[in-house]
Model the fold of this input.
Amino acid sequence: MLESIKQYLSTNVTPGEAGSMFWATIYVLAITIGVSLAVLSMNWLERKILAHMQIRLGPMRVGPHGLLQPIADALKLLIKEDVIPAGADKIVFWIAPVFVMMTAFTTFIVVPFGRTAAVTDMNIGILFMLGVSSLGVLGVIMGGWASNSHYPLMGSLRSGAQMVSYEIAMGLAIISAVLMTSLGATGTGTLSMVGIVQAQADQRTWFVFSMFPLGLAAFVVFAIAMVAETNRAPFDLPEAESELVAGFMTEYSGFRWSLFFLAEYAAMLAVSSIAVTLWLGGWLRPFPNWLSGPAWDLAFSFVPGLTFLGLAAMCFIGTVRMPKILQLRIQTIGLGTFGAVLAAVGLLLLVPGVRERSQDVFWFTAKVAVFMYLYIWYRGTFPRYRFDQLMKVGWKILLPVSLGVLIVTAIVGVRQELWAALTGVTR
Amino acid sequence: MSNGNYNRPDLLDLDTKQETFLDTTEMVLNMGPQHPSTHGVLRVILKLDGEKVLGTECIIGYLHRGVEKIAENRTYAMFNPYVDRMDYVAAVSNGLGYCEAVEKLLAVEAPARAQYIRVIMTELCRIASHQVWLGTHALDIGALTPVFYAFRDREEILKIFEKYCGARLTTHAFRIGGCIYEIYDGFEQDVKNFCQKFLPKLDEYEELLTTNRIWVARTKGVGVLSAEDCIALGVTGPVLRASGVEWDLRKKQPYEAYSKFQFDIPTGLNGDTYDRYLVRIQEMRQAVRILLQAVESIPAGPIMAKVPKVIKPAPGEVYHSIEAPKGELGYYIVSDGSTQPYRVRVRPPSFVNLQALDKMVRGMLVADVVAVIGTLDIVLGEVDR
Done:
């Protein structure tokens, strides 16, 4: 058993490529649990960060600094009464949240958290991801329709129109990134998620910086479109609280509602993963050229462990700063325990062997976390677009820009061949 | 809500009837009375073509408490606290209007010192009311953060109210004939400190919204109301001024000590939601200007005029109106010579301004309805009374 684990860990491919059903199942389980945990922590972080932007404290009661609040909420949602409105189409109403969640989680099959840390490396990975994630809108429309109520109907129609409009700009931006994989000495062009990151490693640049400013423009288009795609502020019209009460989720409550919630955050993670993979070098560490060489590689491999130790130190400082009163003793102990867990993880990540294998996942997650922060930041800053303005942004700004970027990228990419064809001179 | 109106779109004014396109039908959407952004319990029935609003019908009365009828069974002094409960975010202004109307009926005038205190309190209240408006209006349009900033700074005003009269919201600060409370030690300093701290914070609000592209896109050209429409509908207050009509009762029919202070009437040009936003922001700046002038020069003297213990005005009637934060707040009081008013009729600015809703949102989108309800700055306690 141990031997087979060791043997597997020494391979350099994903379980899908290795054809190992057992490891693929393990990975799927790990990703499902990991994404759910990420959603829970996102929930806490969003409330805390948004609260601090809005001069309030956010959750403070359940657990130290409200750390257990998401768990308490999840528990509350689980034990809530299961309400299906009398006029609703029961079967569709039942399927919709399951459908949305399934599509959101399925996309993670091809997300390369590291060179080997993906369930499989599909040769049409990015296409698969786009296809599956856009199926999610079907669930939203199903939910809105099945509720048999005006607000959900309007919310789901908005959602449908919005996702269709922004998917085009998004797809064009993705194509321009895929085009870039064919550049360089060994570039052949690939749709595989792992292949795209490999291409960035080979070219020693992230696509956001390549062909400046084309990569950046495509990235910006994608970064805007992905916010609209996931129905987040300032494009959160389908669930516009002040207009449509809760949009397509109005009639949902309890566990079904929490599935929608889970799916929304999973979708945010999924599209952020696409952005990270395509433009920000996936699992590659930052500064591959400026700080290159084995010494720097070694130095960077310590960063994950040290980050966790830093977080643990913050927890310990928090423990010291906690008022020394009886009522807060459990909270103080809890915070200390949390810090200890973080410290243990940090120390584990410093162990040689683990250190080398874990840094891929760390860099990928850190980059996704930046996007998650941006999502929260947008929410704290921007008012909401109106429906027609949203469409205007999608069709009149993002679509032409991404189309232009795509054409220019293509022309620049084949400029030598073009030159040769036009003049007959090969340079 | 088993109200028959829900299924009766014929109640709506159907003069905008349009030809159906691709066999689509109109939808009737019931917005409220439980809705996050109808500012209380306003119910609006919307007739929609997709997202486009074809007509609206406001249904009010969910917060009706019969304030005017209660007045007929209370003495003049006893009715005074009730008016605070109408526009509860600007309770001081409501009290001022009522006290002045009764004073006019009694033909007495508050002493100069009381008038200054009244002006300071009322202007503080104007700022507090506009802050509530700003926060909720921004929240309706989707900006989550300004509401917390506005409420943080409003707290300073409420603290001054609390120190002055013990209450924060429904203050009952004034009495018929003047004020009952002398200002506390350090009142002037508190107000001055507030003014100094508040101006940079106002800049902070503006930084969040005034040049925000999405905010401008959401408010410019939305809910346009021309000056003629405003006057025809009887709309007053910042909504009227944003349409370019320079009409402020503090200047046009000066009451209290307002004639002694220098201030401008901010007006808009286009009468859209953005102009109304700018006008209210400017009004807060002007209120600070009045406050700084007033605290510098509070005269000495009594704070209460000679008013009989039992208020028994001679038979007659009086109408008196003041410039409340939301517009012209009028009280029409009929006395039959007894200790209780024969009839009290309130002209609430929110109620009258709400009548403009239909005109403003026709042909706009659903999201604009929410923006327009916010920009009208209605308080349902005052609409329904």
Q: What stands out?
A: Residues 2-284+351-423 of chain A form one domain. The first helix of chain A runs from residue 2 to 10. The CA atoms of residues 110 and 121 of chain A lie 6 Å apart. The two ends of chain A are 58 Å apart (CA to CA).
